[in-house]
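We close this part of the discussion by returning to an individual protein. Part of our work consisted of pairing the sequence of a single chain with a tokenised description of its backbone. What the numbers capture is local backbone geometry rather than side-chain detail. The amino acid sequence and the backbone structure tokens for this protein are reproduced below.
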Amino acid sequence: MATAEAVTQLYHSLSLPEAKFLTGWSHGKEALKDGSYDTYKGSFYVNCGEFGHASVNSQNTDVGHSAYPEVTASNVWPPEEILPGFRQCFEELCNLIIDIAASVARACDRYALAKIPGYESGYLEKVVRTSTTTKARLLHYFPPPAYGYVEQSVVEGAPHESSEELLDSWCATHIDHGCLTGLTSAVYIDESSHEPKLSSSRGSSLPLTHLPFLPNAPDPRSGLYIRSRLGDITRIVIPSDCLAFQTGESLELITGGKFRAVPHFVRAGKAIGDTAGVARNTLAVFTQPGLDEVVDRETGKTYAQFSKEVAERFG
């Protein structure tokens, strides 16, 4: 078995503080509303502009924005001998999600063109296909502590904000800041029964063992929830052979509120039987405008300026 020190060194090699921990591995770096840091989930970030359509076809000048290393930093990857095929599969899946997002964007463009005076035909599809700032986030939600579960229904109506803060125990209520976010189905793994192991032999790392997936979340009330414009809260279940897309704050700005950013959160589940060690895993791909793209036509605000405002908003 690999030593704890070797595992720590692996995580360290995949962490990029110079990119504000928004490229590569990140854990415990995201500040929450109360000033604490989120340790309930770990993230592996990838800048999609390095591969696929954007890397070949884009004329975007984002690489000149040295003040935004979180979108211009080069990706880091786990060694191939530890995770064989991980990089190739990751890039292929991201490209697939971006391709489908372009089709969703095309439908959004038709609606915006009909409803918004002066809207540029095909604008959102162009952003999705050519932006070099699109970011992928592979998320691992660690098994929640026993006290993380709240015995309360959220589908019978919108709870008060105070109770919602208790319900968003795996991921706090927030909105995304890009245009369209592509989401895969969540994968649940019982880590108490199948502990991940990093083996080594003669100093060489061997592949991580495969872990069996659970057919669904042990607690049917855990998972992703969204809040509508009217305040209704709905649990979202994405089938394993499907993708889901939600709208973000940049699209709300670009369309003058015709599309709204979707508030959402992730609720941890209650242990059912012997499932106290269940973790949740998913992939989110945030299609974002190029840093020089104008997202507010009235003020001329660019995505770079908007990104700075978002960073200041969260301290």
